[in-house]
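Action item from last meeting closed. Structure (91 res):
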């Protein structure tokens, strides 16, 4: 259904006939670490995430998995000792 509380006109999973079913009755505004993400939308009532109703929970245990402004660095591969590798291959 379309949101009638904060994000008026936006399709929302939590909106039911008797109002917003999200705990607290409305979405929460973004937090500082969300600034720069492409999922942030601005409404007359403030800036909100288009993916999650409470962005602070997504950042609670580390980086948000939907953040577009965070670049995850690939871990460097371990160097393999060529002598040990040749011994392993001969077995």
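Sequence:
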């Amino acid at each position: 259904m379309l949101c009638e509380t904060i994000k008026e006109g936006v399709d929302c999973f939590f909106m039911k006939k008797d109002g917003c079913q999200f705990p607290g009755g409305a979405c929460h505004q973004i937090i500082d670490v969300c600034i720069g993400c492409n999922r942030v939308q601005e409404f007359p009532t403030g800036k909100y995430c288009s993916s999650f109703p409470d962005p602070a929970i997504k950042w609670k245990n580390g980086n948000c998995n939907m953040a577009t402004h965070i670049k995850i660095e690939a871990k460097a591969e371990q160097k393999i000792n060529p002598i040990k590798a040749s011994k392993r291959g001969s077995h």
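Note appended to the action item: Residues 79 and 85 are 11 Å apart (CA to CA).
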